[in-house]
Amino acid sequence: MQTPVLKAPIVQANLVSKQVSTNQEHLTILN
Q1: Rounded distance, CA 7 to CA 3, Å?
Q2: Cα–Cα separations (whole angstroms), residue 3 to 6, 13, 24, 26
Q3: Residue 17, by phi and psi: left (phi above 0), alpha (psi -120 to 50) or beta?
Q4: What CA–CA distance (Å, rounded) separates 12 from 15?
Q5: Which GO MF terms are attached to this record (predicted)?
Q6: For the segment 1-31, what is each residue's pLDDT rounded down to a tens digit?
């Protein structure tokens, strides 16, 4: 039961990093 708890923050961090990268791409397109 510990592995899902440890994997959850990693998945969230990956999602956040993906959102940040997409936001940066949109900003570069706007600029």
Answers
A1: 6
A2: 5, 16, 32, 35
A3: alpha
A4: 5
A5: ATP binding
A6: 566 666 778 888 888 888 888 888 877 777 6
DSSP 8: H
Q: Which residue has the tokens 């940066």?
A: 24
The distance from CA 16 to its chain's CA centroid, rounded to whole angstroms, is 2
Q: List Cβ neighbours of 21 (8 Å cut-off, separation of 6 or more).
A: none
**Cα dist from 7 to 1, 11, 12, 16, whole Å:** 11, 6, 9, 14
Q: What does the chain come to in residues?
A: 31
Which pTM value belongs to this model? 0.51
